[in-house]
Each structure stands twice: as structure tokens, then as C-alpha cells.
Write a sequence for this structure.
């Protein structure tokens, strides 16, 4: 031990934070999450810079986590808590880039879902939204059209669509997101997004 | 939490990521902190997005390199890795880049039209059968054009088959746990 330093208190053997930080799978999840946030906060940043930033952020998050206190009695997940620290660091690192100012979505997708069961006064509105989406489907590419039909009109959820298409539910969710964006572009082509 | 609930929350999460809306991102992660299914779904979403981001980054680099080559080395040809069956457009592109001598003007006009024809070539590339097939689909052209078209088509078929064989031979070999080769 270096002279003059205070000996650190030994961590209890069941310290969940140390256990999580020692688990390669948790660390990979944290790295992936940090990279996804950074890619969006700094679009177009070179891959080498991103990789460097990710390692730096994960290492700072680990240091912060080890010096902070995780309250295991609240029933929260350690990896979600660790990812909260990552988010805070990314937020601070990218505070020069404020949130993108966007127009409200051209479609209220929640209303289009078949199991949305809106109150009677909103049912007409929901039908109108569904008709608008159906009109846009004709102009979409075949994959986007198929996905939106399965999800919004046949009532299938992402795991069910994934089983049909032989892809993961996460892939279906990302594809659905892109399909919704494409449909919104058709329904409100004049609405741009202010890239700030 | 049902799969439908997770669909809704992940959709909101993807929107929030697009908007760089950290407050919305935090709200969804607050729920995920006490819901293992949602947390797992968000991590899976990150993994999928990361693969997409990497593909986007590779495409951006490829576009930048192609643009730089086309700007600074105008006589160079950017050879894109080809995949899938050879199409009429591929052959017409090849003829556009390596045009045979003495082709009449109408052959050039037809070739330009064919550069957008994403139709797979017929299996039989015999000259008479190829001419009959192509003229029924795209209209008449001088015989010397179809001869040049056939030669270019055979060259591309051979090149693509060789590329496929090379990729097959160069594929990474999975480790052999038994240690036998």
C-alpha cells in the first residue's frame, strides 16, 4: 500500500455492484448502451473516437459506481442503475448538443393499435388515424408495409412478427420504428426536422 | 408487463433516442430498473441499433471513399463487390464502362435504357436465344450490340462465380475443439 493512503473498506462478498462490474456480459451491455447514446448525441463521429469515448465513459461509470451507494432494498436492477450513471456522464459530455426540436408525430400510432380500445368520443378519431395510415401503406416499400399491417391491423406484437419473419423481437421493433418514420414522411412530407 | 406494453415503451424509447431526449430516456429506464423483461428488451434494442449504426458508418465511409476516388481519380473505376445474380443492368453498365468500337447510335440509346433494367439474365446465353429473349423484352437492337452484350454477360457471370468461390475459400474457419484438421 502507498504510504499515506487510507485503506479502503473491503467490499462485502455479496456486493452487487462489484459483482455486476465483474460480469463481462453486464460490461458489454453498458458499452453497447453508451455507444448507442453517443452515436445519437454525436452523429457522424469517427468509429475510433466513439470506441475511445465508450471505454472512457464505462471506466468513469465504474469508478463512480464503486464510490456511490447502491440501495439494494429498493428492488432495482444493478445494471439499470449502472446504465443510469452512464446516461448521466453522456448527458454531461454532450450538453453542447441540446435535444432535437421535432414536430409532433404525423400519426398518433397508439390510437391505430387494434387493442387500444379508445373511449367512444375518441373512436372516430382513431378510425380516421387508421384510414390515414392505410392510405400511406400503399406508398411504402413492401417490408415496411407488411410490418405495419401485421402490427397495427392484424394485431401481432413484435415477438409474434419476429417468429413469422425469423428475426428477433428487437429487430422487429427497430424495423417498425423505421416503417413508422417512413409512413409519417408520406403523411406529412412538408414537416421537416430541425437538426440542432 | 405484456409484450404489447414493451412494444409501446420501446417505440417511445426509439423516438426519444432520435430526439436525444434524455428525460424521456431516463423515464423509460426508471421503469426498466424494476422490470427485468423491459430491461432485457432495451438491452436487446441497443444491440440491434449498434449493428445498424456500424453498417451505417461503413456505408458512410464507402460513400466518402467512392466520392473522393471519382473526384480525384476520374479515370479510375470503383469496383463494387457484386452479389446475387447478374442482371441486364449490370451488363449494360459494363458495356457503358468498356464500350466496344463501332457500335451504332441506336445501340448506345438502348444500352442507356438497359442500365436501369434490374432483370436477371436468362440461364441460356446462346446468342440466338439471348437475342430472342432480349428483343422480346427490350426491343430490337443491331446484332453487333447483342454480340457485345453476350460477351459482357459471360464475362460478368464468370467474374461473379470466381468472386463467390474466393469468398467461400477465404471464409473464417470455426475453431476445431477436437484439434483435428
Amino acid at each position: 500500500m502507498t504510504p499515506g493512503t487510507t485503506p479502503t473498506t473491503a467490499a462485502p462478498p455479496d456486493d452487487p455492484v462489484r459483482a455486476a462490474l465483474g460480469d463481462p456480459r453486464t460490461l458489454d451491455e453498458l458499452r453497447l448502451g453508451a455507444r448507442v447514446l453517443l452515436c445519437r448525441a454525436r452523429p457522424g463521429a469517427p468509429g475510433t473516437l466513439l470506441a475511445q469515448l465508450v471505454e472512457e465513459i464505462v471506466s468513469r461509470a465504474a469508478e463512480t459506481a464503486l464510490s456511490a451507494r447502491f440501495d439494494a432494498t429498493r428492488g432495482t436492477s444493478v445494471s439499470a442503475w449502472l446504465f443510469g450513471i452512464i446516461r448521466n456522464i453522456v448527458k454531461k459530455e454532450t450538453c453542447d448538443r441540446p435535444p432535437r426540436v421535432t414536430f409532433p408525430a404525423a400519426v398518433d400510432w397508439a390510437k391505430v393499435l387494434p387493442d387500444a380500445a379508445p373511449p367512444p368520443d375518441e373512436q372516430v378519431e382513431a378510425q380516421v388515424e387508421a384510414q390515414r395510415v392505410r392510405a400511406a401503406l400503399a406508398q411504402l416499400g413492401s417490408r415496411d408495409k407488411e410490418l405495419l399491417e401485421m402490427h397495427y391491423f392484424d394485431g401481432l406484437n413484435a415477438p409474434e412478427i419476429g417468429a413469422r419473419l425469423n428475426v428477433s423481437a428487437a429487430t422487429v421493433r427497430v424495423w417498425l420504428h423505421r416503417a413508422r418514420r417512413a409512413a409519417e414522411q408520406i403523411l406529412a412530407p412538408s414537416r421537416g426536422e430541425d437538426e440542432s | 408487463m405484456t409484450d404489447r406494453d414493451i412494444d409501446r415503451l420501446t417505440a417511445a424509447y426509439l423516438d426519444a433516442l432520435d430526439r436525444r431526449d434524455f428525460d424521456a430516456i431516463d423515464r423509460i429506464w426508471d421503469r426498466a430498473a424494476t422490470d427485468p423483461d423491459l430491461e432485457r428488451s432495451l438491452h436487446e434494442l441497443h444491440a440491434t441499433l449498434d449493428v445498424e449504426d456500424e453498417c451505417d458508418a461503413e456505408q458512410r465511409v464507402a460513400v466518402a471513399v467512392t466520392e473522393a476516388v471519382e473526384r480525384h481519380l476520374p479515370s479510375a473505376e470503383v469496383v463494387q463487390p457484386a452479389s446475387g445474380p447478374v442482371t441486364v443492368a449490370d451488363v449494360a453498365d459494363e458495356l457503358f464502362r468498356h464500350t466496344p468500337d463501332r457500335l451504332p447510335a441506336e445501340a448506345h440509346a438502348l444500352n442507356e435504357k438497359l442500365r436501369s433494367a434490374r432483370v436477371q439474365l436468362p440461364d441460356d446465353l446462346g446468342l440466338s436465344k439471348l437475342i430472342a429473349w432480349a428483343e422480346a423484352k427490350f426491343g430490337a437492337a443491331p446484332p453487333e450490340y447483342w454480340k457485345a452484350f453476350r460477351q459482357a454477360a459471360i464475362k460478368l457471370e464468370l467474374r461473379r462465380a470466381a468472386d463467390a468461390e474466393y469468398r467461400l475459400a477465404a471464409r473464417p474457419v470455426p475453431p476445431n475443439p477436437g484439434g483435428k484438421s
Remarks:
- Chain A touches chain B through 46 residues (CB under 8 Å).
- Confidence is low (pLDDT under 50) at residues 1-9, 191-196 of chain A.
- The radius of gyration of chain A is 23 Å.
